[in-house]
Structures are given as structure tokens and as C-alpha cells.
Write a structure and sequence with these properties.
This protein is α+β, with helices and mostly antiparallel strands. 11% of the residues lie in helices and 27% in strands. The protein has one domain (9-146): Metal Binding Protein, Guanine Nucleotide Exchange Factor, Chain A, CATH 2.170.150. The strands form two sheets. A six-stranded antiparallel sheet has the order 3-4-8-7-6-5. Strand 3 (61-62) and strand 4 (70-71) form a beta hairpin. The longest helix has 9 residues, at 18-26.
């Protein structure tokens, strides 16, 4: 990823769907229970829709009842950036991808006991890669996690 550069927003606007662009580039939020991955139970990993950087594993996904994909931890913490978000008259912690600088969602401290964290993520910021497609997507290093 060191030599990867995020395309300009004008290019991304043509490559992404309107909701993907709104979420990732304009800090938007998709509708709860009406998004692609909120109830996905398949094994695999979730990568940034723009850069493809690995973000979350289905092994850390849980049903939070919120209507968005929720994870207890990132698969590679170095690919996640957190920053204070004071929008909507609230104080929250925004989660962004490191390389693409995509808005992903927010992290809260009401998650499962294992970490106490709930990464509440917009499906529109993610691409799901099933376990049997990890090698084809140059993500074979993550396949071992699913053999345990």
C-alpha cells in the first residue's frame, strides 16, 4: 500500500455508487437495516471499498442490534485511524481507513466483553471478500485465521 494513492474525488464519484461516495468521502451514514452487510454471516474479511486495505474479519463481527455491521476489533489496527467527531451535537470517535482516508463509521465502548468495543461501520464503505476468494484477492495471509 506504500505506493498506492487515493484517486481524486472526481474519479471516485464515477467509480463508486452514490451512497458509497456519500459515506466514504462526505462522512455520510447509510440507513440502518437497509445496507448490504448488517446481517451478513458469511466467513471472510471486509476491506476498504476504495483502497482494498484489510479492515475487519467476520470472526470479530457480532449482532449489535443496531442495523449496521458491528465488529469487536479491526483485523489490522494499523489500517484504522480514530478521530474526535463533534458533529450532530455529540462527542463520538470517528473511524477512518488509513490509506484511503475513507469515513467508515464510529467506535463505541458498549461492545462485547472481549474488547468492550463496538466498531459500528457503514456497509457502503466496505467490500466483503469471502474466505474462498482471499487468495485471488491477494489476501491469503488471512486464510489461516479461518482454519482454527
Amino acid at each position: 500500500m506504500n505506493d498506492w494513492t487515493r484517486p481524486e474525488d472526481s474519479v471516485l464519484k464515477m467509480q463508486l455508487t452514490p451512497i458509497q461516495f456519500k459515506v466514504t468521502r462526505k462522512n455520510g451514514t447509510e440507513t440502518a437495516f437497509q445496507n448490504e452487510f448488517w446481517d451478513n454471516k458469511k466467513a471472510g474479511i471486509y476491506v476498504d471499498i476504495i483502497s482494498g486495505e484489510p479492515l475487519f474479519s467476520s470472526r470479530d463481527k457480532f449482532d449489535s442490534g443496531t442495523g449496521w455491521p458491528s465488529f469487536s476489533k479491526p483485523i489490522q489496527p494499523e489500517n484504522i485511524m480514530e478521530k474526535e467527531d463533534r458533529a450532530l451535537f455529540m462527542r463520538r470517535v470517528e473511524v477512518r481507513s488509513k490509506h484511503a482516508d475513507s469515513h467508515l463509521g464510529h467506535v463505541f465502548t458498549d461492545g462485547p466483553e472481549s474488547t468492550g468495543l463496538r466498531y459500528c461501520i457503514n456497509s457502503a464503505a466496505l467490500r466483503f471478500v469471502p474466505v474462498d476468494e482471499l487468495a485471488a484477492n491477494e489476501l491469503q495471509a488471512f486464510a489461516e485465521d479461518f482454519k482454527k
